[in-house]
Amino acid sequence: MLTTILFFGLAHQENKTGKHLPIRSQKIFLLLFVRIGFCLLLSVKITTTFTSMKAFKILMFCTLALLIIPAVYAFKNKANQNKIPQNGFAVVELFTSEGCSSCPPADELVAKILKEDSTKPIYILSYHVDYWNHLGWKDEFSKAQYSDRQRRYAQWLKLSQIYTPQIVVNGTTEFVGSNEQALRGATQMAFKKTNNLMPVLSNVHFTATGLSLQYPAMAGAANCSLLIAFVQNSAQTNVKSGENGGHILNHVNIVRSLNTISIRNQGGPQTVELPAGFNAKTWQVVAFVQNNSTGQILSAQNIVSSVV
């Protein structure tokens, strides 16, 4: 009975503070409860002769309770730790290049994250920059626009230079693109900090040549832009020269076109031209709202499209 009182006292304290005990502490308490329970059972066996089956059943019930309740408590806390807050999201922007020998590990990392975390609200966008094209290989997916976007991030994040591979998460956190620990930590932090509450697109309609959409009124978004990224799901390149010469490179979520729309407070219709080669079966469209002053991404949406 004493151990039961102790356990429920701890649970009550958790409810009052809103905090969970560390996993290590839970294990210690679990072992403590188990040991106390068995000690109670052993002491009763030694000092007392059971006079009725009813008394034995009561003691067994109490012992089982001491074993089961802490285990359930620990399992519940573990589940809460892995839960993603509603509306949390992470926009992962990778700046990469086929002409950079350090970039393939970053491309492989985002492909791994895309596969392992496919059920999580992670939006991966791979931008191929053009400033390494002079090293002997021209990246067919590269655009000066993406290099300029990376330079804009350098201004927002107060960086002295740009580099590849680089990852930026939700426009606020950056690190070397091949750093798996940093990427997983940044996405988990993004899930906790962000609320994907600002609506992005509605009434989306694809035609053979364009994308028509309606964005709703967005309170507080006067200094923001709506960005529409047309993304090719995958591609493979046989690099014949340059730093990666002789290697076959695999890419995922390649941004082939990025369109910026200035947001009006009252919302409104827009039409965006489809990029050359667009295929609804092998491409996707990601829309996100970004603050023009800070670079912070406030909302994101993946559009499952079909050309009509």
TrEMBL record:
Keywords: Membrane, Transmembrane, Transmembrane helix. It comes from the Bacteria. The keyword Transmembrane applies. Pfam families: DUF1223. The chain crosses the membrane at residues 28-46, 58-75. The keyword Disulfide bond does not apply. SUPFAM superfamilies: Thioredoxin-like. This is DUF1223 domain-containing protein. It comes from Mucilaginibacter gracilis.
